[in-house]
C-alpha cells in the first residue's frame, strides 16, 4: 500500500476540484489513516453521503451547516465533529472556509493510481 512522504509542504500539494466550489488536498496517509483539507466557497455543498470509514473533522476556517443522521448544527472555526461509519452526512458552506478531515482507514477512493 502506498503511503505519503514523512514531511509534506502545503504549497507543493495540488488542489483537486471535486465539485462546484469544492476542492481538496490529500495530505498525509497510510492504509490506516488519511488527512485531507477541503476548501469550500460560500454556498458550496458537500452532498449527503455515507461511507464505512470513521471520520473526524475540524473546522479550520469559515462556517458550515453540518448534517449527521438528520441532525443539522451550525459549526464555525475551531469546532469539530465526529461521523461514525455509515452515518449519512453532508455540509453546506455558510461562510467560505476549510474543513480538515481525518479518515480511518484511508479513503482509497480518493487516490489516483
From TrEMBL:
Q: Looking at the record's lineage, which domain of life comes first?
A: Bacteria
> Cupin type-2 domain location, by residue?
39-95
Give a single Pfam family match.
Answer: Cupin_2
Q: Which CDD domains match?
A: cupin_KdgF
**PANTHER family the record matches:** H2HPP ISOMERASE (PTHR40112)
Protein name listed in UniProt: Cupin domain-containing protein
Q: Which organism is it from?
A: Flavobacterium calami
Instruction: Tell me the classification of the organism that encodes this protein.
Output: Bacteria, Pseudomonadati, Bacteroidota, Flavobacteriia, Flavobacteriales
